[in-house]
Amino acid sequence: MGRKPKESKVKSSNNGVWGKSVSKEKSIYATLKEITGTDMKAYYIMYLYCPEYLKEADKVPVKDFEDLKSRYACFSDSITEDICKRYIMEQGCQTAIKWLLKRLHQKKLIELYDKYYQKAMDGDVQAFKAWQEFSEKFFKEDKENGLTKLLNKIPDSELENDKEDYSYTYEE
């Protein structure tokens, strides 16, 4: 008689694929919590700026602050919306809000990029021109980062030992 095979302790994900998630990206909530240091502040910021990303908000949207407070145990009875509004003045909360707004802005830029592209594909010449201009600006950062990444591969010792004279003089 052989040994009984061990049961797998790895559970199936929602999409039917077996194994652990390979994503290294933190959720919006996890990042906000890391920046602010508390669950309550993270949830409050999400409530203000992206309530659609709160847990189960797609099924039952958060109506108001009292609804938010009733959904999450981290909000004690003594916490009011006025208290949470004061938290927004804290440096950590402002840093978290700025990070979140930047992410939301990036999402809107991607949506705008797709909209221009669809209109251009439908034959709109002005949309095509706008898409081209937008693309240059939208992807400009990536080009600069690519160059910086390439230059950063050059060891400092190579730069220090370089005897080439790169000075430039202009005479008329």
Helix/strand structural class: mainly alpha
Main beta sheet strand tally, sense and closure: none
Rounded radius of gyration (Å): 25 Å
Task: Give the assembly state of these chains.
Answer: single chain
Q: What is the element string, with H for helices and E for strands?
A: HHHHHHH
Shape: flat
Structure in words:
The structure is a single chain. This protein is mainly α and 172 residues long. 57% of the residues lie in helices and 0% in strands. The chain contains seven helices and no strands. It has helices spanning 28-36, 39-49, 65-71, 81-87, 91-121, 125-152, 156-160. Helix 1 runs antiparallel to helix 5 and helix 5 crosses helix 6. The longest helix has 31 residues, at 91-121. The chain is flat and about 75 Å long. The N and C termini lie far apart (95 Å). The model has no long low-confidence stretch (mean pLDDT 82).
